[in-house]
Design goal:
Length: 281
């Protein structure tokens, strides 16, 4: 009989512990072709691997989590996904939390397979958490929400995205907006599960009145808020404060391009991450 894997603590607890030790910044790994070129790397699986592992080594120890953007690995096909597998497994070995930015969402039966792929025990692409798209309805995400809880992993559900186009879908309807219904459903889920919540939200740091728009005391979410939009999309400390106010302790500010542009030097990359983290703290 193979030895039983040690039980993993709930995602909310693991995230809280790492935030206490390393701060709250989440660094996105977005290996765009232009960034690879700026680092002197080929736009190939080999270039992708050197980039990804360099970011892990330089920035992992000073970040709450790393968030690889899955599309930028998928565009290299099977060999790109193999690089993502390597990155996720090296991060696991190094004790660095990962959030796969895959933005998955489908009807329940298919969602089960997405859940298994990104959150399933011993799956090659399993991360500590995955981003989910609730456009097919919050409940369609059930297989991922349940599997995350069972395996000590997490999900981040899109609520108010940082791009302007999102407003036409997410903000419409006032008190009954899509974003509000997602935020309330996530809070209810975390209440039911108890403890530190495993269902987080994605709320752009660029959405000035986010807390108000969600119609929720964000502390009552009892879960983490991933806030992309820091740096390249223009958000900084003032924008985060405007968007989240008293809920800032629950927020994981997220930045990709602005930090990655400091590479390829490991010292420069780490310094950029530390500076951003400390400015936003
Ligand atoms: O889920 C995300 O991470 C995300 C949500 C969102 O609302 N806006 C957003 O920009 N992102 C991601 O954040 C990354 C862009 O970060 P920057 O390079 O810092 O602008 C990309 O990988 C986006 O897919």
């Amino acid at each position: 009989m193979p030895p039983e894997a040690a039980p993993r603590a709930p995602f909310g607890e693991r995230l809280a512990a790492v935030r206490a030790a390393r701060g709250s910044l989440c660094v996105g790994i977005d290996p765009h072709p232009a960034l690879l070129a700026a680092w002197g790397l080929e736009d190939s699986p080999a270039g992708l691997e050197r980039f990804s592992l360099a970011v892990l080594d330089a920035v992992g120890p000073v970040s709450a989590a790393l968030k690889p953007q899955v599309a930028l690995y998928e565009r290299h096909g099977a060999r790109g996904l193999a690089v993502l597998e390597t990155l996720l497994s090296r991060a696991r070995d190094a004790g660095v939390l990962t959030i796969a930015d895959a933005k998955r969402g489908d009807i329940g039966s298919t969602m089960q397979a997405y859940a298994d792929a990104w959150l399933g025990e011993d799956r090659p692409l399993a991360a500590d958490a995955v981003t989910l798209n609730p456009y097919l309805g919050f409940e369609s995400l059930r297989p991922a929400i349940d599997l995350a809880r069972e395996t000590g992993r997490g999900v981040f559900v899109l609520a108010l995205t940082s791009n302007a186009e999102g407003q036409l879908v997410q903000h419409v309807g006032g008190d009954s907006s899509v974003a509000r219904s997602i935020a309330h459903a996530a809070a209810a889920e975390n209440r039911r599960a108890g403890g530190a919540g495993h269902v987080g939200l994605v709320v752009g740091a660029t959405i000035g009145d986010a807390a108000h728009r969600l119609g929720l005391d964000l502390a009552a979410l009892n879960g983490p808020i991933l806030a992309p939009g820091v740096g390249a999309q223009g958000a900084g400390t003032a924008e985060l404060r405007a968007a989240f106010g008293d809920a800032l302790p629950f927020v994981l500010p997220t930045s990709s391009r602005a930090i990655l542009a400091a590479g390829p030097g490991a010292a420069e990359l780490r310094a950029a991450a530390e500076r951003t983290r400390d400015e936003l703290a």
